[in-house]
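Most newcomers find our protein records easier to grasp once they have seen one. Nothing more is needed to start thinking about how sequence determines fold. Here is such a record, shown just as it appears in the course material:
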Amino acid sequence: MTSSPEPKRARTDGPSAPYLLHYWPTIPGRGEPIRLCFEATSTPYTDVTNTGPDSGMKTLLSLTSSSGDAPPPNIPHFAPPILQHGDLYISQLPNILLYLGPKLGLVPANDENAIYRINQLALTALDGLSNEAHDTHHPIAVGDYYEDQKDAAIKRGKDYTRNRLPKFLGYFENVLRQNKGSEYLYGKQLSYADVVLFQGLDGVSFAFPNAVRKLRDGGKYKEVWGLYERVGGLERVKAYLGSERRLGYSNGVWRYYEELDED
């Protein structure tokens, strides 16, 4: 299959307001699909908490404080990531992706229903490869330490790697097979759903290396891993992945605990 051209950033009339991402520093987490969308389209942005001497934490904490004020007419934010674009402040990762997709050229412009289908795919990837992956190491209480719920985490981790993860991979394998003549999940071009799936696959590969290796070597999900290699091999994405801007995994959504992985 021939390679598809990388998407061009959507044009805007007049000078564009800068994009500012407010998220926890030093971890990829739920801010990473947003960063990847910017990087894949060569869109300038500022990763506020990872830039500057004060790392922007004061701003982030003020935006997410239970008593914090949101610049009118914006509304308060429960948690990051938060996207600032001109006077607009929005949070919740799927909401941000829904906003950015058309602006960055990551949704086909000639298909009025594309954004809903792409959003469906992105939400499914976030459910299976981000939210459920996170819940393996915090299956009981988000506010408790991993060590306080380790037994439940081990049980949850084994169910995830043996049942839930293969189910989600199978779903995306079917989506890719049905999108005949294309290298991507929907239509003929890279969409933000492809970016979200790439990041989810990369995250679970870190968190469950043995389980993912077995699933890859089993050969059932060739289309899925083909997409993973394809997105990661895009010139702009590849350059980003090899740069200092790409933050390492640690204590975010995707965490490695040997006992949660397959033997």
Remarks:
- Residues 9-15 have pLDDT under 50 and may be disordered.
- DSSP finds nine helices and four strands in the chain.
- The CA atoms of residues 62 and 68 lie 6 Å apart.
- The radius of gyration is 19 Å.
